[in-house]
Amino acid sequence: MMRALYTATTGLVGQQLSLDVVANNLANVNTAGFKKSKAHFEELLYQTLEAGGNQTALGTEQPASLQVGLGVRPSSTFRSFTQGPLEATGNPLDMAIEGEGFFQVLQENGEIGYTRTGIFQRDSQGNVVTADGLPLEPAISVPSDVLSISISSSGVVSALSGASTVPVQLGQIELARFANPTGLTSLGGNLYDRSSASGDPLLGNPGDPAYGTISQEFIEGSNVNIAEELVAMIVGQRAYEINSKAVQAADEMLQVANNLRR
C-alpha cells in the first residue's frame, strides 16, 4: 500500500484538530478573560531506505541518506496568556488584572481554581463570589449596609458604610503566578487548575514585583484576534484540501496499477 495514503491521512487529522482549536477561539471571542490557543505539530518517524555514508556502486560514498517521512501528529495546544483588552463595566466588584497573575477561587470540591475573569458579585451572605457562586480566596465579605466599595491597584478592598465616615478595610486580594502558565489544565467555566507542567502557584499581592495590578470596575476581555483566527481558518482549510488531494492522487495511482494488463 502506498505510504502517501497514510501520510496524507495524518495531515487531514492534524488540520481537522487545527480547525477545532480555531473554532473554539472564535466561539469565545466575547468570553471575559478567555485566552486563545494554537495547535502545535511535529513530524512523525522517518523511514530510512538507504543510510548516508554507504558505498555506492561506483565505489564512492553516498553523501546523504534516503529517507521518507511518515506524516505529522499534534504535539500540544499552546495557550497564549497575552493581555486582553479592558472593558469598563461600572460594577464596583468587577476587577481586571493588568499584568501577570490569576484570581483564586474556592471550587465545590474544596480545591483552589485559578481564573483571569474578574466578574464578581455578592451572594446572600455578603461573600464576594464569581458568577457561578464560587467564593474568592482569600474570602472577602461585604456588610449589607455598605454604601460604596473601593479596590486599590494593590488589591486592598475597603468599604464605606452608613454608620461611619471612615472607610473600613474588608480584605486583601491575593494573586497567583505560575512558572509555566501554559501548562495549566483548563477546567471550563473560565477556570484553570495547576499541573505538574505549570508548577506550584506563587502567591503575592497585586503590584508586587512580577505581579499585575488591579483595575476596579473593569474586566479583561478575550485576547482572541478575529482577523488572525480567520486567516488561520483559511490556511487550515486549504491545507486540509491539499491533503485530501494527496489521498485522491494516491488512490488514482493505485487504480492505474490495479488496471494493468499483460
Describe it for me?
The chain is an alpha+beta fold and 262 residues long. The chain has two domains: 3-81 and 224-258, no CATH class; 86-220, no CATH class. It contains two helices and 20 strands. It has helices at 3-27, 226-258, and strands at 37-43, 46-50, 66-69, 72-79, 86-88, 95-98, 102-106, 112-115, 120-122, 128-130, 136-137, 146-151, 156-161, 168-172, 175-177, 185-188, 191-193, 202-204, 213-216, 218-220. Strands 7, 8, 11, 15 and 18 form a five-stranded antiparallel beta sheet that branches. Strands 12-13-14 form a three-stranded antiparallel beta sheet, with no helix packed on it. Strands 1-4 form a two-stranded antiparallel ribbon. Helix 1 runs antiparallel to helix 2. The longest helix has 33 residues, at 226-258. The protein is elongated. It starts with a helix and ends with a helix. The mean pLDDT is 91.
Strand content: 25-35%
Can you write the helix and strand succession as a string? HEEEEEEEEEEEEEEEEEEEEH
Biggest sheet statistics: 5 strands, antiparallel
Q: How many domain regions? A: 2
What would you report as the Rg, rounded to the nearest angstrom?
Answer: 27 Å
Summarize model confidence as the mean pLDDT: 91
Question: How would you classify the helix and strand content by structural class?
Answer: alpha+beta
Total number of helices? 2
